[in-house]
Amino acid sequence: MGLVTHKIERSELAAGDHIYSWRTLFAYSHHGIYVGGSKVVHFTREQIIVSGDPILFSAPLNCSSPSSTNVSSTCTNIPDCGFQQKESGVVLSCLDCFLGDGLLYRFDYGASPSVFLTKLRGGTCTTAQSDPPEVVIHRAMYLLQNGFGNYDVFKNNCEDFALYCKTGLLVLDQGALGRSGQAASVIGAPLAAIASSPLKLFMSSPVGLVVATAGMYCLTRYATDIGVRDDVTKVKVEELTSFHNCKSLKKRLNENHCDTREVTLNQTDTPAKRQRRCD
């Protein structure tokens, strides 16, 4: 286990693993769930993935297949490489196509706070515990058939998809940052720099300022980790649509200045139950 990433060999893979691969000189990483048989289920923008094309985190994809089940014959590793439903960003790819030219890394779950804080980059581990592999694979395969909503680089990206498959946790607040450690890093770095700028008045050494900024950056990342956040709840994959509809309704009610009351917040494996009234 390194301070930056968790590189593994293919022989170390197990079904249900959350894997990722760095792109463009470690600028960002693409995440997915390994479901066994050299197959990976992952989340992209709602475009058709052509089998054999490298998968990117958020950049436009080279797509030419007009049908969700019409997979290019470029890849011959597995017959269903590139499968996705129409208007869905969840894709099944072979491991080779998922990795492209990148190396293979495994996301770490159940990391201690001290280990989490030593990581130089977000998107490599979480303090949250993973569910059993069979549950993880069930979620991934269910979402392959039913979708995972609209792609959003900060609130609903490939890492958010993999984190949900592994934990079943979703953010309650529709306006809040998603679960992605990468997104937290992108936002946390400038915030840490801004927050630490007043310390220049008290620190003569630039080294001390760098250490203080790095500390604030790590604490910002830790505060947004799904393992410590208090705005997440566990939702069954079969109830995702209802959960998202409830969040959309709440947003519309708030926009119309309606009174939204939380009656119960069940932290078991069911969505939040809400009662609302408009004055």
TrEMBL record:
Residues 20-174 form the LRAT domain. InterPro entries: LRAT_dom. This is LRAT domain-containing protein. It comes from Anisodus tanguticus. The lineage of its organism: Eukaryota, Viridiplantae, Streptophyta, Embryophyta, Tracheophyta.
